[in-house]
Write a structure and sequence with these properties.
It is a single chain. With about 280 residues, the protein is α+β, with helices and mostly antiparallel strands. It has two domains: about 15-120 and about 270-280, no CATH class; about 130-245, Aminopeptidase, CATH 3.40.630. It contains seven helices and eleven strands. The protein has helices at about 15-40, 75-90, 105-110, 150-160, 175-180, 225-240, 255-260, and strands at about 45-50, 50-55, 65, 95-100, 115-125, 140-145, 185-195, 195-205, 210-215, 245-250, 265-275.
Amino acid sequence: MTNPTNEPAVFVDLNLARRLEAAEGRGCAGFVETRARLVPGCGAAWTEIAGAYVVFDTVDSPVTQTFGLGVLGHVTSADLERIENFYRGYRAPVFHEVSPLADSALVPLLNERGYQPFEFTSVMYRPTQGGSPLPAPRNPDIQVRQAKATERELWAHTAARGWAEATELADSILDLMRVGANRPDAICVLAELNGRPIATGLMSMHEGVAVLAGASTVPEGRKQGSQLALLSRRLRLAAEHGCDLAMMCAQPGSASQRNAERQGFRIAYTRIKWRLGKATVG
């Protein structure tokens, strides 16, 4: 059967899930490696258990969780005990984000050990070449460029300003953006309007998958096409670096998900985030 759109055949299967989960997990492992380098003695660390990335950044960090659990390897009750002990050592909560393509034995194990589902994430992907055309920037006054090594602080402050209204992250967002900007594997991109930075994007790569993150626009720069221009630039950079797939994550049904779908991204699957009940943490 021919493909009338000439889109590369990418099927939503375990192989795709492994590529996507490994790319995000490796990126988050790189994040805590950077934190440990910037702040010696902070305790940030990661380990691999049952193939999954088990990541600790800080107690309240969104990076503190596992990635690829049940997708990158078979999981036993003993493996979950090891993971829980890892987080207990930091007095941190235990979170797992689980793909529906994970080992079917995982969910019963989570139920048995007192985990509760509480959050959903759409994991999206698109080929970097072929298929849907790359988005064309619509505002000629917006210029997009890769941030220089000397501009990491500028990138971080611009990104943090775009998240200023997210009160749950208010105390930590600049710190998180600084760590992200200083990752050696990260490509930081700036969008400028009349020479003034108004938006940011970030990209990391792992085995042919480009992970797109760091999307942020300062309040006065919104609805002018900056994120579309940043997306287009990062997809081109991904292709130039040999990546055949790009991935990003969003809250189901959100404006971010809709915008990604308009630009050729498809939902690979919806992950469920699980947390260990307080009564079972000790």
